[in-house]
From TrEMBL:
One of its GO terms (molecular function) is hydrolase activity, acting on ester bonds. Signal peptide: none annotated. Gene3D superfamilies: SGNH hydrolase. It comes from Larkinella terrae. This is DUF4886 domain-containing protein. Residues 31-156 form the DUF4886 domain. InterPro entries: DUF4886, SGNH_hydro_sf. It comes from the Bacteria.
């Protein structure tokens, strides 16, 4: 089966359901080039794919805070001198070495979140990496992973132009979405819409996170924390009597949402009826996350010309 997204077709490695209701077939070989955000987004993908009956093999080239530019410069260093330690930044291996360890069906790329709203930071590195991957893995389908905006109460948001930052979660989402779609169109690549799913949930009147205005942030006392119900981001936590705040990275709920989006996108199958839920995510919220993930994937189907093959 083929999952068509835009101008590309992603091979569905999972075979049709057999008579006993179980899927069979060769694993989908997925290679992720990214940073901590890709680690967050695919955190529970293996558990979901196992439950759904889709064998999955995952390879990774991830470095914290790594931009498209840095990934390319590391690849360039390894090409110039394969023995240069600079090019072997991925646990002692180069990107070329990792990509050459197997035959990959899907390879994903993403921008560093702080730069995700500035389309000029993608150029020319997205195309250089795209061409580099295509040379090493000619049959792979190259996909962009759309990252998410920071939490609404963040003390700062991502860059949208040189010297200019977004002023809100909404603006960061809008600008990063525009940048991802612009580059994806230039390269004819599909998009995993994780950022859209985050915004759809965050902007929902019932399910979106709202800052706790009753908490005294000027004099916090451990172990008390503000109410952070429905937060898709890590938010506040105590660390050795110090109140820390992470408005960027995904919470378990955010990681779950990201993994559900990846599942729906990669396998063309609704995750709504899957049973796996991270321990800290309430059941009612988890159900909403599953619905949001699938509705977001279906919107890509409806909005992208030539998008075919997802099961409704």
């Amino acid at each position: 089966m083929l999952l068509f997204t835009g101008n590309l077709a992603i091979s569905q490695t999972a075979a049709p359901v057999s008579a006993d209701g179980k899927k069979n077939g060769k694993p989908l070989h997925l290679f992720i080039i990214g940073n901590s955000f890709s680690g967050n987004a695919a955190r529970y993908l293996r558990e979901l794919s196992e439950e759904g009956g889709h064998p999955l093999t995952i390879g990774r080239a991830e470095l914290g805070g790594c931009s498209l530019q840095r990934h390319w410069e590391l690849a360039e260093a390894a090409e110039a001198n394969p023995d240069d330690p600079k090019g072997k930044a991925y646990n002692g291996k180069s990107l070329k070495m990792l990509l050459s360890e197997g035959v990959w069906d899907v390879v994903t790329l993403q921008q560093y979140s702080m730069l995700s709203g500035d389309v000029e930071t993608y150029r020319p590195y997205a195309r250089k990496l795209y061409d580099y991957i295509r040379k090493l893995q000619p049959s792979a389908k190259i996909v962009f992973h759309q990252t998410w905006a920071y939490r609404s109460d963040a003390d700062g948001f991502g860059q949208v132009a040189t010297g200019k930052l977004a002023q809100s979660e909404k603006e960061m989402w809008e600008k990063s979405r525009e940048a991802y779609h612009t580059i994806a169109r230039e390269l004819g690549a599909p998009i995993i819409p994780t950022g859209d799913a985050f915004w759809q949930l965050s902007s929902d009147r019932k399910w979106g996170y709202r800052k706790d205005t009753g908490f005294d942030f000027s004099k916090p006392q451990p172990p008390n924390l503000p109410n952070q119900d429905h937060s898709l981001h890590m938010g506040y936590r105590w660390n050795n009597a110090k109140l820390e705040f992470d408005s960027h990275h995904a919470s378990p709920a955010g990681c779950y949402l990201g993994s559900l989006v990846w599942y729906g996108f990669l396998f063309g199958e609704s995750p709504v009826n899957l049973k796996f839920v991270p321990e800290t995510v309430p059941a009612d919220f988890a159900a909403q996350l599953r619905k949001t993930a699938w509705s977001t994937v279906k919107k890509i189907k409806q909005s992208e010309p030539g998008f075919h093959g997802l099961k409704d």
